[in-house]
Automatic annotation (TrEMBL):
Reaction(s) the record says it catalyses: a 2-arylethylamine + acetyl-CoA = an N-acetyl-2-arylethylamine + CoA + H(+)
Domain of life: Eukaryota
Protein's name according to its UniProt entry: Serotonin N-acetyltransferase
Localisation per UniProt entry: Cytoplasm
EC annotation from Swiss-Prot or TrEMBL: 2.3.1.87
Amino acid sequence: MSALSALPFLKPVHRRSPRSSPGGQRRHTLPASEFRCLSPEDAVSVFEIEREAFISVSGDCPLHLDEIRHFLNLCPELSLGWFEEGRLVAFIIGSLWDQERLSQPQGSAVHIHVLAVHRTVRQQGKGSILMWRYLQYLRCLPSARRALLMCEDFLVPFYQKCGFEPLGPCEVTVGDLAFVEMQHPVRGHAFMRRNSGC
């Protein structure tokens, strides 16, 4: 049995609208959703969403296409994509990080490099839902102790709602951009792991 087949929160969710008549005909079917780890074949779709999401805001992408391919070859199990009708609409890419903070040695963590949502489905709560599923998934990985990320000040409230806490300013900067480092523990949730099929 694959690791993913044991994780119910990564299995496809098929939603259908209520039947519109006693004869049983459906008015329409909502898009089928699938959450799965990304593969190197998804790299171009990932980069297209990321480029549109970040270049208009910061002028640069957190990961370039060759870096995306590198991470999806190196650790695809630390990525998660949300697909609707086979089309990627949101994703997270992470990698293992052998540090407690992004600038300090010790510990083991998952460094979340990027979370992005396709422009056509923004403002629908997909980023929060995807992050929740990703954190649930990390709880099932024995190597994951905490999730770390860095973000700009205006994104701190979003990540706090997802359960992250600020650690302070990050030593990493990109041009004039400064970042806040944030963390989320992914251990110590035995009840959730037991009931999630992990």
